[in-house]
Amino acid sequence: MRERRVKSRMLCADMVDICWKDTGGRTRRSTALLEDISHHGACLQLEREMPLETELSIEHASTRMSGRVRYCVYREIGYFLGIEFAEDSKWTERKFRPQHLLNLEKLVLRAAKKASRRVQ
To answer: Considering only CA atoms, which of 25, 101, 95, 35 is closest in space to residue 66?
Structure first.
């Protein structure tokens, strides 16, 4: 799959609740593992497949973000869903900080800065 993201995502790990309507119009709830997140979207791991364009909400403590499924692929341990957040539901670290959060860009910059100091 070709990378089309404008902003990089931060790796994370946290359990979140999701809510959506199935094809029959019934409200469904499940728990998902939040794999990565950015201002515009997130990746969730679930035990079930979900149709593309399904609208859902992601809930954690007092935070609620809404979006739609942009991809759903099965990989060895479950289904991975790419979620694009709704325009009025963008993520910020201040709004919600996952239990485990790793900003790879900052990590690489910090390592490069340390390496350049050693060379000098």
So the answer is: 95
* The listed CATH number (3.30.200, 3.60.21, 1.10.10, 2.40.10) that belongs to domain 10-119: 2.40.10
Residue 60, class by beta-carbon neighbours within 10 Å (0-12 exposed, 13-18 middle, 19+ buried)?
middle
Taken in order 39, 41, 45, 47, the sign of the CA dihedral is positive
Q: DSSP letter at 23?
A: T
Entry pTM: 0.76
**How, if at all, do strands 10-21 and 55-60 pair?**
antiparallel
pLDDT digits (tens, 9 = 90+) for 49-85: 999 999 999 998 888 999 999 999 999 989 999 999 9
